Amino acid sequence: MTTSDVQAPSGAEEPGEHNEHSRKRMVIHAVIALAIVAVALFGVNALFATAPGVAKRQRPERRAALVEVVAASPKQIELHVRASGLSLPVESLQLIPQVQGQITSLHEDFVPGRIVKKGTVLATIEPRDYRLAVQRAQSAVAQANATLALEAGNQDLAQLESSYLEDLVPDDNRDLVMRKPQLATAKAALRSAQVAVQQAQLDLSRTRIVAPFDAVILDRDAAVGRLATQQNSLATLAGTDEWWIRAEVPVQELVQLETGSTAKVALPSIWGTVTRPGTIVQANSQVEAQGRLGSLLVSVADPLSIRDTTPPKLLLNMRYEIELAGKTVKNAVSLEPSWVHGDDEVWVMDAEDKLAFRTIQVALRSADQVIATSGLAAGERIVTSRLASPVPGMKLRVGDEAGAGKPGVSAKPKAKE
What is d(CA 81, CA 79) in angstroms, rounded to the nearest whole number? Predict the structure, then answer.
């Protein structure tokens, strides 16, 4: 029996049919698995939807920002500018002798820190040489007077001779015959001798070195026996009648000040709350190169309290705080610096309780206040609170915790009567 005579058993599947059945079973199994997952998800959602106590969340409404406000109250305000400056004397000089010589004496008050009156002889230079010079000059005057007297006699003789020789003397030589040049020379010599006496007496007086004004001695470089010359200073003096304080202030504040206005000078670290009066003697006098600061002078009379010992004494080259009385402005509002934002903007709460911006005109700005002369109407509610992201039109509210019991704080502007 050959191989071709053997047949396959009855009912056996061919290989292609077997693969087709396997694929169908896999598809059926995948569909059943997806259906089970879908039913499970549906059941979970239904369970949460029907569970008691579960409510749908809603977005909360945005509440208005809680702020503090102060009603704007325009009024007449006298501006006060605060500055600081160094003190300096109105009068000061280096005391230099006008003649040379050995110092023979010094005044007992010729000491640094002492006060001397005008005309006090502070030092004396050896005067004997200068007295001798005066005597020599006086002798020269006497000799010149004698020469002039002799020449006057010669004039009489020349006049007599001229009367006899009048027709013989040419007109060009008549002055010589009359000895007029000789007379003019004698008179000039006398005048010169008299001037020499005045100069010698002046030099003698300069051996007494005196204080030219009421002064305080700042330093001294003189001693008995030392040679005083015109190249060396003996002392530095500062006047005591008046001192200045030179201060620098911003230009926008300088224009609010006027010459003659009053000032208060303070030194809190030493004087405490005590102040001394002063007067602006020069405003708008000088502006620095950058143009941001201007200088002014404040005068303080009797700075060393000589005439009145009650006020504290000033010290030279000490920095003082100054409060300067400026101009008076009308319809001005005083603001705290923290209420002003950006380019001079103020936040206000409008009639609809919404945020609005107002641009103000600043008349004076300092560390503790800003004076606005325009931009705010009477009664407008100024927002004094800080806002993280201020936007015009955002809703605002004033709560009890923001303004209860505080003067000037109100939730609504007062209605006009």
Answer: 7
